[in-house]
Amino acid sequence: MEQHPILIIGGGPAGLEAARGAAELGCPVLLVEKETILGGTPILSSYAALTPDMESAEEAMKRMADAATSESLVDVRTETTVVAATGDAPEITVTLAGPKGEEQVVVGAVIVCTGFQHFDPGRETQMYGYYEYDDVITLVDVERMLKAGNFVRPSTGEKPKRVCFIQCVGSRDRQIGNFWCSKVCCGIACKEAIEIREHVPDCQVFVFYIDMRMYGFWEDQLYWKAQEKHKVQFIRGIVTEITRRGDTVVIKGEDTTMGRPVEVPMDVVVLSVGMEPSEGTTAMAKLFELPLESHRFIETVGGALNTVSTSRPGIFVAGCAAGPADLEDSVSAAGAAVMKAAGFLRKHALSTETA
Amino acid sequence: MEQHPILIIGGGPAGLEAARGAAELGCPVLLVEKETILGGTPILSSYAALTPDMESAEEAMKRMADAATSESLVDVRTETTVVAATGDAPEITVTLAGPKGEEQVVVGAVIVCTGFQHFDPGRETQMYGYYEYDDVITLVDVERMLKAGNFVRPSTGEKPKRVCFIQCVGSRDRQIGNFWCSKVCCGIACKEAIEIREHVPDCQVFVFYIDMRMYGFWEDQLYWKAQEKHKVQFIRGIVTEITRRGDTVVIKGEDTTMGRPVEVPMDVVVLSVGMEPSEGTTAMAKLFELPLESHRFIETVGGALNTVSTSRPGIFVAGCAAGPADLEDSVSAAGAAVMKAAGFLRKHALSTETA
């Protein structure tokens, strides 16, 4: 009997890791990606370097994509989405909509790797001035400029003298309904701060934060390095307002360590935007009838000891579709999902043989 | 040809997850644990409830152990250590020392799951008074008391009125040479603070911290809940001295948010001790000639996109043997290691067939 493939939805870090890994176990894979290219957010959002080891995102994701696509067991469909699904694993009939129209395929198991989207800081709040001021940008805009090798003040095109990061934009925020910490923004801000200091040595860089969540090895690999080697200045504080004075953006708030108000002009203000479930994650949850947890990501069942199982047998989730995750989390979860999906299919194949 | 087993060293969360998962893929497993029982640190250190979902550690680990041991492909050896290894994967000859003497076995791949040990707060510093004062205890001591259902002031056996946690003991500390953040202590302290408030409702609980690293969903699941529902008081500050006044332990330091000195008597002081590589991790690294990274854990190769591969093909690492990890990290990494170990063995089996 021919084995039904594992359907992997999403061609970012988690999806590519899962596709290659499943193929190495001998499982046929159907890898579906809605965009024209593989690589996911690190490529689509033009990331410069990965956190924490600063490898080129383009090179790293190309290596992952090449490894997945070079496997003969991996059938890659770009510009393709899943538009319908019926039945239960190990026999789910999915309808794919691609460049050549619709097609029905029977798959044995599913791994949802549809990731996150960046919080839009102009969406629900005017506070940050993101749509109003050219010099208020996001972490993602910084990546794009760093990748182009040209970090400048957007309004003038000149090298900035003072840049600050504002942490927790769209995270830890009851008002906008995002109760979670997005986990990676502290590390990414540290990484970008180091890169800006390297790129524009006479630019001062400040990071306004509530807690610097530099867990594990990020502590010295990024945080101490940023402070000691690159003289990035970390200020525990709350920014309450971003306004303009003449041509310059001014941030107002409070330095909570020094217990004094802060009012500082900045050439560039970087909003450290957090993660929200992507449209694809929300859509696939609905299509496969996967319950969401309280933060609107796909719910896993089984507590801390089961990171990838959903409430539906044979359907797994990996990476940021299940919640904020760093790259390590995403690729580890992808491996865990492959182990469980392949184990699930093997169990059903054995029970069919003996039946 | 009979397939050589995957050797899994360590029967904690990562090792048990790896053993069950590998067996579900059809791989024979040799699971070696040096203690008399399975379950790892959650059992050996008498954890009460797991972070963040507060499931009974005993029940959760029993479920994992039962799932692993009930697989016919898993050969469990307790009270057994690996004392020698020669050759390379997929054919490594290891010598096991167990209750019935020594035995040589050929294994195809190895997953090192030898975990961490808790930092000993009396080891290199007298500052915390851990050996001097009965009422200065650690996170682990709290678990043991909570599990026994009897959280008391050790010196009197009475219910305490004031308890404080001191974060980052043995972590983020250049002086003692532990440069890393241990990742889980903030979450565990929050969880224990909640449990103490439930167990002793008229006891005030304080947490002294540098940064509360409540990443992802821990933010509202534990941190907000501790503050809002359970009235745990979080104080950003530095504790510089623990002394005694009469029968009471007094902590001295600085509240860095309020910018004022703090000198408070406490009935119980809990040191939130961090993670260090376990003796088993150090020993297995040496035995299998696996390089350590700069923090003395086992080095993984391949950056953020490869969490489990060591510098030796066919030898993988999962869980805290590779660095500070929460339970999610550990079980995800175990899955990733199984995927890669099984893929490695399959590739070699195919190349042997075609040779």
Fold and architecture overview:
Two copies of one chain form a homodimer. Chain A is α/β, with parallel strands linked by helices. Chain A has two domains: 187 residues, FAD/NAD(P)-binding domain (3-Layer(bba) Sandwich); 154 residues, FAD/NAD(P)-binding domain. Chain A is 28% helix and 27% strand. Chain A has eight helices and 17 strands. In chain A, the strands form four sheets. Chain A has a seven-stranded mixed beta sheet. A five-stranded parallel beta sheet of chain A has the order 3-2-1-7-17, covered by helices on one side. In chain A, strand 4 and strand 5 form a beta hairpin. In chain A, helix 4 packs parallel to helix 5. The longest helix of chain A has 28 residues. The model of chain A has no long low-confidence stretch (mean pLDDT 96). Chains A and B meet through helix 1, helix 6 and helix 8 of A and helix 1, helix 3, helix 6 and helix 8 of B.
Mean pLDDT of chain A, rounded to whole units? Answer: 96
Number of domains of chain A: 2
pLDDT under 50 segments of chain A (min length 5)?
none
**CATH topology of the largest domain in chain A, what is it called?**
FAD/NAD(P)-binding domain
Q: Would you tell me the structural class of the helices and strands of chain A?
A: alpha/beta
Fraction of residues in H or I helices of chain A? 25-40%
CATH architecture descriptor name of the largest domain in chain A: 3-Layer(bba) Sandwich
Output the helix-strand order of chain A.
EHEHHEEEEEEEHEHEHEEEEEHEH
By DSSP, the count of extended strands of chain A is 17
CATH superfamily name of the largest domain in chain A? FAD/NAD(P)-binding domain
* Proportion in β-strands of chain A: 25-35%
Level-1 CATH class name of the largest domain in chain A: Alpha Beta
Shape of chain A: elongated
Total of DSSP H or I helical runs spanning 4+ residues of chain A: 8
User: Major sheet of chain A, described briefly?
Assistant: 7 strands, mixed
Distance between the termini of chain A: 14 Å
Biggest chain pair contact, residues each? A-B, 65 and 66 residues
